[in-house]
Every structure is written in C-alpha cells, then in structure tokens.
Specification:
alpha/beta, 15% strand, elongated
C-alpha cells in the first residue's frame, strides 16, 4: 500500500505541534497535505535518515544538496512556508526548537526513525565544509574564499549576468533590468565616496573587478583592487585590459591585512566584511582607517543579522556555514557601527537596502533556473543545488526582515574636525 506520505505528514505535524502548510509526496508515489500547496518531495528513505540524525536546518539542507529532497511548485512560496517551521523561534510560533518539549515528540520521533529504515546516518554531501571554530587566519580565510568564489567564473556569469556584481543591486523600480540596477549601485557607491579624477581608491574584496572598472572609467580614479580568489583576479585583470584601463587599475591577490601602500583617498568594501569575523572586525576597521588619508571616506556595504536577546548564545547558521560561506559571520548593524567608531571613524550615514537585496536574489535565482542544465555541467548538481537553495532562502530572509544589508559611510576625520561632507549629505556631492 502506498501510504508513506500520509504517515510522514502525520508524524511531522506531531513533531511540530502545528499543521504542516505543505504537501508531501513520498518515494512510493503517495501524497498528503493541503491541495494546491507546494510539495516537499521525499525521494527516498535516506532523506528521512538525514533529517533524523541532524534535525532542523542542516539535515534538510543535506537532503536537498544530495538530491534526496526536492520542492515541487513555487520555490519562494515553499521557502516562505518552511521559514516559519525552521527559523521562527518566538514563544507563539511553531518550530523545531519548541517541538522538543511537546508530549508526543518522543513517540513521533521513534515513528520517523522506524520509517527511515536502517539506523545509519548517510555521509554528508561532498559539498559540505565543517570547521570546529572560526579562526580567520590568512590561510583559513583563503580557503573559505576559494570554496565560495572559485566555483568557476562561467558559473557566476550565469547567475550574475554581464555586470558580474555579487552584491545587492540598487533598484530604481522592481521592473528595471539587473544590469541597470547594478550600474546604479556602483554609481551610488562612487557618489557617496565623492570620487574625483586621479584620486586613489582601494577596493577591498574587488570580486570580478566591476567596481574598479566603473570607478576608473566613470570617475577617473586610480584603483587598487584586492581579492583572495585567484579565479576572480584573473577574470578582473582581463576585464581591466579589455576596457583599456591597465594604467589606472591594479588587481592584486592580497589580504587586506597585508596592504601597506596607503594613504588612499577612498576605500570601498562591498560585500566583503561578512568574511572578516567578529573577533577580527576591529582589526579590519583599524587597518582600513590606517590606510585612509585624513578626510578620506570608507563605504562599507555589509549584510547584517538581527540582534539576539542573548548575544552570547548566538550560533552560526548551519546551512550557510556548512555549504556557502565557511567562516562567514554576520553582526547586527549597531555592532558594525560601534566597531568602526572604535577604530576612529566618524560614521556619517547608514542606508538600509534590505528590499533591494530580495529583488536581486530573485533575479539571480531566475537566471540560474533559466540556464540550469549548463550550470549543473559547470559546477556539478550538488553545488548548483546549494546556490539555488541559498539564494532563494536568503531572498525570503530579506523579505521577512530576518537579515538586512546596509551601506555605512564613514570618514577618517582630520585634526581640524572638518568632515568634508556637504550639509545635505544625501545629495552625495
């Protein structure tokens, strides 16, 4: 009898202590759950073993990456429905954490274990990277950056498009093109930094060279771009040469801690500070402060998490840490501003771009879906599935205000105390 899905649906609802808002389609062809809702497709019993032996987000992620679990229907709707079960931890919200205290939890867990088959946990997918702690040495940072960014430039071209900008775009309207929105973001950064011809700009975490090329071509500055990714550097150097800007742009494979050729008139750090680490953040801020000339500006573009009631109990995100950004750490925006000020900066402006990142991620997922077969050929099925899940889940996280992204404009104040900022700073003159 094909009854795996009804049994599994009932067990999951008992574990959660709440209705499951999705259908389940099981390996035996059976289905159960709300008609018309997205379906969680459980392809085999191995998916159950992954979730039994690692309950919560990481077990689900392992099953997804391995291809044991799939979503049938709108991926974003499914992520939104699942987010209340996996992420939400409020007193009134259902969730995997609260389920541990439910009276029927033990019986349901045993029933799930019985359905899962032989009690041996499958090995994690090969795409998983696990570390016992976040050291943020030069060596471990290089390894983490290589894991994320050296997937292949051809793969990133599929996702990011011609702009090759891997941070949130700045949308004039939801219907704008991705290329226009990324151009507008780069121009916004340049305006905030008040770049002028022949100034020196340090682009920390320069990626594939998009900011460096834009700033040199449109504003006439001289740029040093640094990255820890060999593949990014090679791609960026070719773009610089193709644009005829080799006399104005230098791309280095270099750690920010090893840059010694200041002073610079301005520094851009776009989507890089998430890799720095909480214990190293003051060092990062102090190093950039030391590289700026008095009166120089820093534009720090960084994802932020919401503060916990007990910050000491904060744990890193299981899926993101294991598959996407090894050693990546998010901090609340207040912590970032405090650390920049402790380093000596005067923070002049903070702008939230949360909704902009949600729009950007949805476009990236659409691009990946449109060229899925080629993406799988280039990176492998597991890695492509990692990126699809990561981007869709993050889009929902931004939309639900679980995470945000902010541009922080800071100045190294001269001894005179004059910031050099206009009275109406949002004009970005």
């Amino acid at each position: 009898m094909a009854d795996a899905a009804p049994r599994l649906h009932a067990i999951v609802e008992q574990l959660l202590g709440a209705p499951l808002p999705m259908r389940i389609r099981a390996w035996d062809g059976s289905q159960a759950g709300p008609p018309g809702a997205p379906a969680l497709v459980v392809r085999n019993r191995r998916a159950l073993r992954r979730m039994v032996f690692k309950p919560g987000e990481l077990g689900l992620a392992r099953a997804w990456v391995a291809g044991d679990l799939e979503i049938e229907g709108d991926l974003f709707v499914a992520m939104d429905l699942l987010s209340g079960l996996v992420w939400e931890r409020g007193d009134d919200a259902p969730g995997l954490v609260r389920a541990l205290g439910d009276p029927g939890f033990r019986a349901a867990a045993l029933a799930l274990l019985k359905m899962a088959g032989p009690p041996l946990p499958p090995a994690p997918p090969r795409e998983e990277v696990r570390r016992t702690r976040h050291r943020h040495t030069r060596r471990t940072d290089r390894q983490a950056i290589s894991h994320h960014y050296d997937v292949g430039n051809d793969f990133y071209e599929i996702v990011l498009g011609p702009s090759m900008v891997y941070s949130c775009a700045y949308w004039p309207a939801p219907g704008a093109t991705l290329e226009q929105a990324q151009h507008d973001k780069l121009e916004l950064v340049c305006r905030k930094l008040a770049l002028k011809p022949d100034q020196r700009l340090l682009d920390v975490g320069c990626g594939w060279g998009s900011m460096a090329v834009h700033a040199a071509r449109e504003h006439g500055v001289r740029v040093v771009g640094i990255t820890l990714s060999q593949e990014q550097a090679a791609y960026a150097r070719k773009r610089v040469a193709d644009a005829g800007l080799t006399d104005r742009i230098e791309i280095r494979v270099q750690d920010y801690r090893d840059v010694t050729d200041g002073p610079y008139d301005a520094i851009s750090s776009i989507g890089m500070a998430e890799h720095v680490g909480a214990d190293k953040y003051l060092e990062y801020a102090s190093d950039l402060y030391g590289l700026l000339a008095p009166g120089g500006r820093l534009l720090n573009h960084q994802i932020a998490r919401r503060p916990e009631r007990d910050e000491a109990a904060y744990e890193l995100d299981g899926f993101i840490d294991a598959y996407v950004f090894p050693d990546g750490e998010l901090a609340p925006i207040g912590t970032t501003v405090t650390q920049l000020e402790r380093a000596g900066f005067e923070v002049r402006d903070v702008e939230s771009l949360r909704e902009h990142y949600a729009l950007t991620l949805r476009r990236w997922v659409a691009r990946l879906d449109d060229d899925w077969r080629r993406a799988v050929r280039l990176s492998g099925a597991g890695r492509a599935r990692v990126w699809r899940l990561y981007m869709a889940a993050c889009a929902v996280a931004f939309e639900r205000n679980r995470i945000g992204v902010n541009q922080v404009l800071a100045v190294r104040p001269p001894e005179s105390g004059e910031s050099g900022m206009p009275l109406r700073s949002r004009t970005w003159n």
